[in-house]
Design brief:
- This protein has 174 residues and is mostly helical.
- The protein has a domain at 3-104.
- It has helices at 3-67, 74-101; strands at residues 104-106, 113-115.
- The chain has a two-stranded antiparallel ribbon with strand order 1-2.
- It is elongated and about 100 Å long.
- The structure holds zinc ion.
- Zinc ion binds at residues 107, 109-110, 112, 121, 123-124, 126.
Length: 174
Amino acid sequence: MKTDDIIAKVKATASQAGQAAVKAADKAAKTAERFVETTKLQYQIYELKGEVDALYKEVGKLMHAAHQNKPVEESRIDELLTEIDRKLAGLEDLQEKKARSKNRKYCKACGNTSEMDQAYCGHCGVAFEAEPAPETDKAEEPEVPTDENDETAEQAPVEPETEELQEEPQSEEE
Ligand SMILES: [Zn+2]
């Protein structure tokens, strides 16, 4: 029997098993991390929904007061509606983040989630917008060890193109 071969084989499987264990632990840690992230987002969504509901209720009260011919400040209703819009936008943002933390795609049209690689919502069929480039975590970039005669170090810095936004003066009505 070729003992060397057997030993080599055993060693190979041992190292593979070790690597698999490391990968599994890594995956478990990532899953746990994701779970915490999802839970946190879920809580924020819950809170924000409560705030939106409170605003809806306030608008409803004002509308009812108007219906009863009681004096109602219209600007207050506008304020509340604007606030609702703002919070709903924030809510959508959180829903998207939550879906992403579960590796899913959030549908703005119906509120369901689909597989990440889908081009259309699996629930309502709406076409998904093209995915923006994923955010790269620069902190995880491995540092390149510097060479003594490193010629690439003398790279000219790239000047970012600045686009100045011109604000149109708004005509003020008095
Ligand atoms: Zn949908």
